[in-house]
Design goal:
- The protein is α+β, with helices and mostly antiparallel strands.
- The strands form two sheets. Strands 2, 3, 4, 5, 6 and 7 form a six-stranded antiparallel β-sheet that branches. It has a two-stranded parallel ribbon with strand order 1-8.
- A hairpin with a 6-residue loop joins strand 6 and strand 7.
- The longest helix is centred in the C-terminal third of the chain and has 29 residues.
- The chain is globular and about 45 Å long.
- It starts with 9 loop residues before the first helix and ends with a helix.
- The N terminus is likely disordered.
- Bound molecules: coenzyme A.
- Coenzyme A binds next to strand 3, strand 7 and helix 3.
């Protein structure tokens, strides 16, 4: 795991927010062994989802400095299989924070251990909610996007949030009818 600046440095806390780089996980690696495979000889999807949730939760906890729970995961699409001998590379960073919730963008690559060629196998957006000592949602700091990509993800995250809120409202109505 790499993060380039110390958490809570003066620079990062300026403007009462945290930069993306301070909390990102850029290369959490997991070498695949035979017991990680399904009957097709490719990586078991549930294993990847579980590791990804943990990696994303570390980013949320680093950003909020609180215990965080997974509130939702947007659609998860497996784009390509990973095979025995591959090394999985997990990446996660905070896209945006609102009042008590944060969107964490994630990506998984399968790296061929012989030639180090990387294949993008999965991406997903997680929403985490920070909890206080009474297990109630608690305020989180804003995200300070710096790079062009971070600024794009920051803007796009708000559009995805609107969709989530709309979907949640529709689910609530369906439950009541
Ligand atoms: C996530 C949880 C804490 C939200 O609690 P709640 O009482 O609904 O809280 P609120 O309605 O005040 O919402 C709090 C925040 O969560 C967000 N949220 C709630 N449900 C959400 C969902 N399904 N998807 C995305 N965000 C959600 C809200 O938008 C709000 O964000 P904001 O404060 O940034 O505007 C609660 O539903 C919970 O504990 N769920 C179980 C979590 C869990 O066990 N996860 C798996 C194990 S870690």
């Amino acid at each position: 795991m790499l993060f380039s600046k110390p958490i809570n440095s003066e620079e990062n806390m300026a403007n009462s927010g945290k930069t993306v780089a301070t909390t990102a996980v850029s290369d959490h690696i997991y070498p695949l062994f035979p017991n990680d495979l399904n009957s097709q000889g490719t990586a078991f999807g549930g294993l990847i989802m579980s590791i990804l949730d943990r990696v994303a939760s570390v980013v949320a906890a680093r950003h909020s400095e609180h215990v965080c729970v997974t509130a939702s995961v947007d659609a998860m699409h497996f784009l390509a299989p990973a095979k025995q001998g591959d090394t999985l590379v997990f990446q996660a960073s905070v896209n945006r924070a609102w009042k008590t919730s944060m969107e964490i963008g994630t990506k998984v690559l399968a790296e061929n251990s012989r030639n180090r060629q990387q294949t993008h196998i999965l991406s997903a957006y997680f929403t985490f909610v920070a909890l206080d000592g009474d297990k109630k949602p608690t305020i989180v700091l804003p995200v300070i996007p710096e790079t062009v990509d971070e600024k794009r993800r920051y803007e796009e995250a708000d559009i995805r949030r609107q969709t989530r809120i709309q979907n949640a409202a529709e689910r609530k109505i369906r439950r009541q009818t």
